[in-house]
Amino acid sequence: MSVVANMFNLLFPHGVAPYLVGGLLIGLGVAVLYVVTGRQGGASTVFSSTWSWFVATPFFRQAALLDSRRWRLVYAAGFVLGGALYLALGLPQEASHLPAWKLALGGVLIGYGARLGGGCTSGHGICGMASLNRGSMLIVATFMATAIATAWIMKGLGVGA
Amino acid sequence: MNTSIDRLVTLVAGTLFGFGLSWATMIRPEVVLSFLTFDDLGLLFVLGAATGLNLIVFQLVPRLRRRALLGGAFEPRPFQVDRRSLAGGALFGVGWGICGVCPGPALAGLGAGNPDLLIALGGIFAGALLHGLTVGRRECPAPAPVAAATAD
């Protein structure tokens, strides 16, 4: 029994409760949007649809971006508001200490990759898999694999978290 | 459709999402990186709970109702995977593995008082622009799922 408990503590040093509750709240947000409006609420398309206000190339003028850019911006504002609500309630929050170059380089790759890949952790990971879309499952497996490999390489090079 | 109710529900849905990301501590890049290096596998429960709940909702609700509560059609997800989108997924993973940030947590974490995430957000906006300017020159991809005429 203690072997099992030790194994559990090793794999989940912070327990599972915050992760489970947080995941259910995230899922509830996606579910509310879907049941009430019919929309699938991924997080990454807003970064393309918002550019459609400023860039008039054919790509950014496509109907899929123009027609959804308003609700996507409202949805994204909700994300910021959700974080602000968490802060306002005085819930535990630790500052992070990642070097700027990692945030900048990672950010560009995330933005480019998510749009080229048709979605991110929420679009493919939640909406796509909940839709039983096989393509989304393939993309999730792909980005999980490259993310794990990259994180281990960074750790090996001594520039991990 | 009543647009103001639509906007309010969309804002509430996003707020739930952002609050959940904060509660799950996914707004801390270090937590995500410790998942990717197997030091804390808790994020499996975040993805499992969020996806599991919506697996039920996405599969069941359209069978019980013809239309969404505000009258819109239930969107399908017409995503077709190909080599280019797989390459996009691979690049996204490399970026995620470098900084532990994904698009949702970048927004929620900013709200929760981590201004460093502005750098990541700037990078994500730049990456999305670069994608639109380079890929768009060759073709417009299949439209992302959008709500029917009721969207705006």
Automatic annotation (TrEMBL), chain B:
It comes from Nitrogeniibacter mangrovi. The keyword Transmembrane applies. This is YeeE/YedE family protein. The keyword Membrane applies. It comes from the Bacteria. Keywords: Membrane, Transmembrane, Transmembrane helix. InterPro entries: DUF6691 (IPR046513). Pfam families: DUF6691. The chain crosses the membrane at residues 40-61, 86-111, 117-135.
